[in-house]
Amino acid sequence: MHRFAEHVRDVYGLESTDYSEVHQWSVEHAGRFWSELWDWFGVVGERGARMVEHGDGFSETRFLPDAELNFAENLLRVTGDGEALVAIAESGRRRSLSWDELGSSVARVARALRAEGVGPGDRVAAWLPNIVETVVLMLGTATVGATFSSGSPDFGVAGIVDRFSQISPKVLVGVDGYTYNGKVISRVAELDEVASHLVGLRKVVTIPYLEQLGFEVAATGIEQSGLERRDRWDEWLGEEPVDPVPFERFPFDHPLYILFSSGTTGVPKCIVHRAGGILLQHLKEHRLHCDIRPGDRVFYFTTAGWMMWNWLASVLGSGATAVLYDGSPFHPGPERLFDLAERERVSLFGVSAKYLEAVAKAGVAPSATHDLADLRMICSTGSPLVAEGYRYVYGGVKADVHLASISGGTDLCGCFVGGIPTEPVRAGEIQGPMLGMATEVWTEEGTPAGPGRRGELVCTQPFPSVPLRFENDPGGERFHRSYFERFSGAWCQGDFAVRTESGGFEILGRSDATLNPGGVRIGTAEIYRQVDSMEEILESVVIGREIGGGDTEVVLFVRTAAGVELDEELESRIRRRIRTGASPRHVPARILPVDDIPRTRSGKLAELAVREVVHGRPVENTAALANPEALAHFVARLGD
Q1: Which uninterrupted H or E stretch holds 41?
Q2: Which of 171, 221, 281, 486 has the most beta carbons within 10 angstroms of its beta carbon?
Q3: Number of H helices, E strands in the chain
């Protein structure tokens, strides 16, 4: 980051290398900034002369409109016998591919896809765990110019059909099953059923993952789907290719990925992402904001159904090794991921804020039990990381690590705000806006909110990873409603936030789940910050319950630790904690115990689903939840 700042200062006449000045330059001269990144990172391809073609709004603005590249080519520039991919199964089984082996495997996938007639305009769908083959399939798909979309096998049939049926893939690749928390889950029959619902599907390919792990698997029955046959992965790939893979180059805005919104309140949105935009965003976030260097080993706990998987795969473009993990982060014990970080000499360790809260409460103290000498950076996302989480990391994990809370979304497959290696880390704060992202906090009136004033997180200028479009969205109406209906000319992310006096950000929860008692807007994260720091509480969810007259009351549901009962004394302490740490407005009208709390498959609290159930309204897409049965705890809990 500092070297880039020096370069910008010297070439463009900035007064200093201060991050705030470099950031201001990056948004005021956006076309020049993104063009400069192309050159700085040495992107393989033709950049073209034009830096930006301004259009009417975010989606019509095109960066580097004359550029051509191949996404896979840029991730496969390293050669040799060093490890490119490392995959650890929950059972402990370890696999790795060298850079040369990865390139050869991608070439085989590209050849197999071309044999199926797959090319630009076609889609390849992966119902796969976070394993080596998932990355190889993605790179092979990008090689031939097709569009890749993935979902995790813990999605049920309905959930994955809701997604893949909207994009009509030509090829579907799945597994015979997967393991989680010590359990073996077959996906043989389910893969057949999914295939039977996909119009235009030409081929189903099965990766014998459970077989590789040593488990017996029932025979397949693909004839039910109407396809001629299902191929096993190795049979489909064929022999090792003799010739190197040819990389055809495509326009900067060529469709690379289709990602899906969580879909907890309806059918998931199909978000089509641009290859060039994703490449530049991820290279910027990795090399500058995360200080990832060639030879680093990067781990992020994710499934192939979350955008952080796509983010993790992109570290190959920085010459770093991607460390993959498939399974529960708490099996066989809460120290599981720290064991992995030690053994694999991880330099960047990525997890969710809820994971850090959970291991802190479990008493895990890696600073005393693990050798994490190679660890330079810890990233946290998925939900706001509270100040106690920062203190846990620096006290219990590693004192000289860079801790970066980052926030963005599937919508841009990247971050609006996050880590800045040259700036101080302050407990409870995200360090600042990412380069090239004109990120602000606005009031309800659409004006900038001053430091300390709550408002909506917005981006006021276009950026290269604005989605190309939503699939099945004639005229772009749903796309416009999702981001631009609230404020004209600005992207509204749907996060309630505050800018701090130091220039950082605090994310206060989803604004569409914002509480509004007595007409005062309250972010849910402000309550979680107080409640979830209590040892007696494992987790909580808070909603606003409609009580008539346009008003709402705050209702807090808590899941207590083992052996702890939510009695009057604990309720009183919870209320005092919230009143003192937040404000009297934040104190819930009711506090109720529950045995479980629903989450999306990426681990986020399903606040909106809870709110709908409490009000007696249907949750339209329970398949998007990792534990939909938890909703039953909220039915008929509140009387009039």
Answers
A1: helix 30-41
A2: 281
A3: 20, 32
Distance CA 506, CA 361 (A): 23
Cα maximum dimension of the chain = 73
Cis peptide before 421 (omega within 30 of 0): no
Q: Tell me the C-alpha distance between 305 and 164, whole Å.
A: 12
- B/e letters for 155-169, b = 16+ CB within 10 Å, e = fewer, are bbbebbbbbbbbbeb
How far is the CA of 154 from the CAs of 301, 303, 352, in angstroms?
15, 9, 18
Structure tokens at 307: 């955008």
**pLDDT level of residue 224 (50, 70, 90 thresholds):** very low
Q: What are phi and psi of 618, to 5 degrees?
A: -70, 145
Q: Which of 244, 373, 263, 324 is nearest to 83 (CA)?
A: 324
Tokens coding 221: 């029955």
What global pTM score does this model have?
0.87
The contacts of residue 418 (CB under 8 Å, 6+ apart) are 285, 289, 379, 404, 405, 406, 407, 408, 430, 431, 432, 434
Distances (CA, A) of 189 to 177, 181, 223, 224, 609: 10, 21, 11, 10, 29
Single out the residue of 303, 307, 263 nearest to residue 153, CA to CA.
Answer: 303
Whole-number CA gyration radius for the chain: 24
CA dihedral (152, 354, 385, 591) in degrees, to 10, reads: 120
Residues sharing a CB contact under 8 Å with residue 455, sequence separation 6 or more, in sequence order: 441, 442, 443, 444, 449, 496, 497, 498
Contact indicator for 586, 522 with CB cutoff of 8 Å: yes
159 DSSP assignment:
H
Q: Is 202 helix (H, G, I), strand (E, B) or coil?
A: coil
pLDDT of the residue at 152: 93
Tokens of 264: 């907890």
The burial of 81, by beta-carbon neighbours within 10 Å (0-12 exposed, 13-18 middle, 19 or more buried), is given as exposed
The CATH number fitting domain 97-291+302-315, selected from 3.40.50.720, 2.70.170.10, 3.40.50.300, 3.40.50.12780:
3.40.50.12780
CA atoms within 13 Å, Cβ hemisphere of 425: 23
Do 97-291+302-315 and 518-634 show the same overall fold?
A: no
CA 522 to chain centre: 25
Length of the chain: 640
pLDDT tens per residue across span 479-505: 999 999 999 889 999 888 999 999 999
Q: CA–CA separation, 572 vs 208, rounded Å?
A: 54
Interval 375-427: pLDDT, tens = 999 999 987 898 999 999 999 999 999 999 999 999 999 999 999 999 999 99
Q: How far apart are CA 541 and CA 431, in angstroms?
A: 26
Alpha carbon 316 to chain centroid distance? 17
The two structure tokens encoding residue 637: 């809990």
Neighbouring-strand partners of residue 174: 127, 206
DSSP class of residue 223 equals: G
Residue 434's φ and ψ, nearest 5 degrees, are: -75, 150
Segment 438-446 shows an average pLDDT of 94
Query: How open is the CA angle 11-16-19, to the nearest 5 degrees?
Result: 100
- ∠ CA 176-178-179, nearest 5°, is 150
Class (C level, CATH) for 518-634: alpha beta
Q: Supply the DSSP symbol for 218.
A: P
**In whole angstroms, what is the distance from residue 104 CA to residue 27 CA?**
40
Q: Where are the domains of the chain?
A: 97-291+302-315, 518-634
